[in-house]
Automatic annotation (TrEMBL):
PROSITE patterns: N6_MTASE. Residues 201-371 form the Methyltransferase small domain. It comes from Geopseudomonas guangdongensis. Its main location: cytoplasm. It holds the Pfam family MTS. Its EC number is 2.1.1.174. Gene3D superfamilies: Vaccinia Virus protein VP39 (3.40.50.150). This is Ribosomal RNA large subunit methyltransferase G. The keyword Methyltransferase applies.
Amino acid sequence: MSLFISPFAQLDLLRQPEQRHDPLQAFDAADEYLLAHLHEQGLGAGRRVLLLNDGFGALACALAGHAEVTSSGDSFLGALALHKNLARNGLAPAAVRFVSASETPQGPFDVVLIRVPKTLALLEEQLTRLHGQLAPGAQVVAAAMVKHLPRAAGDLLEQYVGPVQASLAVKKARLLLCSPEARPAPRSPYPSRYRLDDPRLELLNHANLFCREGLDIGTRAFLPHLPRGLGRARVADLGCGNGVLGIVSALANPEAEYTLVDESFMAVQSAAANWRAALGERPVEVRAADGLAGQPPASLDLVLCNPPFHQQQVVGDFLAWRMFQQAHAALAHGGELWIVGNRHLGYHAKLKRLFREVSQVGATPKFVILRARKG
């Protein structure tokens, strides 16, 4: 049980994905500070509230029933947590409207509460979309734990919204209080693009993508080792990002069937655009999801994966291990999971706990490419 107490509600909240004996909470002191400030200022009846990057729905669940609440973020797992936490606390699903970060929430909004994201490009994109969506006299307040609050976050708020005043720190959290002013309509710097030489591709990347300005070194190490001669194999690019692994594999395997999956809505948006640019109308399934959790058992022959090692600000291999488990469940007998990972993470030993046969198919001084076969 994770009890969240605010002036608006007392809630039992959970994170996603769920872990047994999870030591982490679905909220932090920055959430508490935001809601205490809002209560002190007075919310008023019938106010329209926009929440940006509300991790696991703590803010939305607290304000449900007190205002007309719209929540927007880039995490499928965050959206899943929001819906589960609404139900867990006896709140109606319709009490909060969720809008993915790949879309623009429609105002006007009287209050905007922002949890500063790890990727400041996402914050910049969200602030450009606030233009024309604020009601007269709107409150705009951003929050973060002090250790996760870069000075550039305040600079972006001043650039796109108006003057900013930083609060005192409370329980190691800080607020940025923004006074909206008229600004010219901004032009978003996103999406960005970069090119690959082999194969020749231009890849589009929306604001919240990892390594948005160029191919990450893990994927660069993986690409030369992607399997060929797959025939009509059923292939998934798990944690697809901008889709580069799946797209390069598809170009080399014209008869194979592909599914591209990521928990980031902006990643899926990018991957779908990149697939169309590289492969035209060739069939593909591109979806935002909790990895392969919804994939039918034994429905895949090959899974390609460059697994993440963090969720928001939390670093660890829990998500990677979960992806390995999902891949094992989704693969047919004899199917294979191919991954790239940092040498020091010890994925070889972890994969051996699940798969009958694990071998190394390539390596660089920093990375290993592993193939795990399901028996």
